[in-house]
User: What shape does this take?
Amino acid sequence: MIKILALGDSYTKGESVCSTCNFPTQLQDSINLRRNNQRTSLKIVAQTGWTTTQLQNAINQGTLSNNYDLVTLLIGVNNQYQNTPFSVYQTEFPNLIQTAIQKAKGDKTKVIVVSIPDYAFTPYGGGNPAITNGLLPYNQFAADYCSQQQITFVNITDITQLGLQQPNLVASDGLHPSTLAYTKFVERILPVALQKLGLPN
Assistant: This one.
C-alpha cells in the first residue's frame, strides 16, 4: 500500500471546500486511478491558521510514523498573514523539510514542497500588491532552499493569481482556493508524484 502524508495549513486541509476536494485527496484519487484502485492511504496534518511553528508542534506532539512513500509540504502563508518575523520562517521551514524527509523514510526524493498561493487575487485580497510582495520572499526562500538541497519544489502560485480573472478558482469564502483550483494544483503535482512512486504517468 502506498502511504501519503500531507503537511500544511488551510491550503492543505482545504478550507471552504468539501472533505474530498482538497489537493491531497484529489492527488490520492488520481494516484489510485493509475493503480487500478489499489489502496493508497492519506494522512493530512493541517489546520487553518497554522504557521510553521504550529505545524512543527503538531507533528512533534503526534505519532506519525517514518515510513511514508510520499510527503507534501505547503506552509508559510500564516507566517506572512500574522506578521511573524521572516527570520522565524527562515529557521523553521528548513526544519520542517528535515521533518518531512524523516517521515519519508529518510529519502528526500520522496518529498514535494508546494509554493504558497497568492491570496491577493481573491475578493478578500482585493488585488492588493502588498500581499503579493509580502509573500514573494517566502516563496523565493522556499524555492532557493529546495534547489540547494535538491528537494522537489512545485510552483502553483501563478494558478491562484488568476483568481480575480477567473472567480471559479476561489472558494465560496472569497479567500481560499476552490475545488477547481486544487484540481489544477494536482495537474502539476501528479506527474512528479507518479515519478517518485515509480508509477506510469
About this structure: The longest strand covers residues 2-8. Residues 129-149 form the longest helix (21 residues). The beta strands are 2-8, 40-46, 70-74, 111-114, 152-154. The mean pLDDT is 97.
